[in-house]
Design a protein that fits this description.
The protein is α+β, with helices and mostly antiparallel strands. The protein has a single domain (about 1-110), classed as HIT-like (HIT family, subunit A, 2-Layer Sandwich). Helices cover about 20% and strands about 25% of the residues. The chain is globular.
Length: about 120
């Protein structure tokens, strides 16, 4: 689903500034903010300002948004001091992958050695 905003979507409300968040970086297309339940010393979510429900809903017309999301993830890693040591960027796409908020988001995780690869 791709529309400008979904009124009941918590991430749309964060992106619009309606709900406060600990924003660490932003662009005109994306927002990065700290996760409320961090799974690593650094755990930041990077979301598009426009509502896109999941990675599977990102189309060719969204190339600029996709590039911006990944660029902002890199910026966050650099700002947070985890760039040199390495970091993980991941997304959950759909219920079988554990996606609980249906607004595309990337997790930027780092600040400690990560467990064995996700296999």
């Amino acid at each position: 689903m791709t529309s400008e905003q979904e009124p009941n979507c918590i991430f749309c409300r964060i992106a619009s500034g309606e709900i406060p968040a600990d924003v660490v970086a932003e662009t005109s297309l994306s927002v990065a903010f700290r996760d409320l339940a961090p799974q690593a010393p650094t755990h930041v979510l990077v979301i598009p300002r426009r509502h896109i429900a999941a990675l599977r809903d990102l189309g060719p017309e969204d190339a600029e948004i996709a590039a911006d999301l990944l660029s902002l993830a890199r910026t966050v890693a650099d700002q947070e001091g985890i760039f040199a040591g390495g970091y993980r960027v991941l997304t959950n796409d759909g219920p079988d992958a554990g996606q609980t908020v249906h607004h595309l988001h990337f997790h930027v995780l780092g600040g400690k050695p990560m467990a064995a690869p996700l296999a």
